[in-house]
Amino acid sequence: MFYEDLFEKLNKIGIDYVVVGGVALVLHGVVRLTADLDLMVHLEEDNLSKFVNIMNELGYKPKVPVKAEEFVSAKNRASWINEKNMKVFSFFHSEKPINLVDVFIEEPINYNTIQSDAVKIMSGNVSIPVISVKHLIRLKEISGRPQDIADIAALKEVEKSGRR
Q: SS3 for 146?
């Protein structure tokens, strides 16, 4: 899996996060092409600080022209939301350009709610916390883009089949 090294490190350090977006769809059994990894990381300062340290250590850099450490500040995130209508903070890997990680800068659904219903899915030897199908559908409804509408239909089929 593309991001196995990242998942291993996040788990080892004890970062509070949940996989959402296209990778979550794939991990729930939906066949869909996606290259980026969408994460909800608990927006508590200590957790974010450790998360940013891991991203730096693994060679990920912000797509926007700021230092990764600026992401930790709630004041900065609020400014980016209000002034730039930013939804996610994106990290890219300079040596592996296909590796792109988008992290929500606010919680469209309360993080603790998402985390409490998250499912653990194994990929190789790595346990990955993945948003529940129910909450993933809700996130997709909030976004409402054409791809999200198609994803909702596929997720409802997953729900019907009882796969997750």
A: helix
> What does the pLDDT look like over 12-29, one tens digit per residue?
999 999 999 999 999 998
> How many domains in the chain?
1
| Residue 114: closest CA among 19, 26, 45, 9 | 19
If you ran DSSP here, which 8-state letter would residue 64 be given?
Answer: S
pLDDT (tens digit per residue) in 59-92: 999 999 999 999 999 999 999 999 999 999 999 9
77: CATH: 3.30.460.40
Q: For residue 123, is it within any domain?
A: yes
Nearest of 101, 130, 106, 125 to residue 27 by alpha carbon: 130
* Structural domain boundaries enclosing 27: 4-157
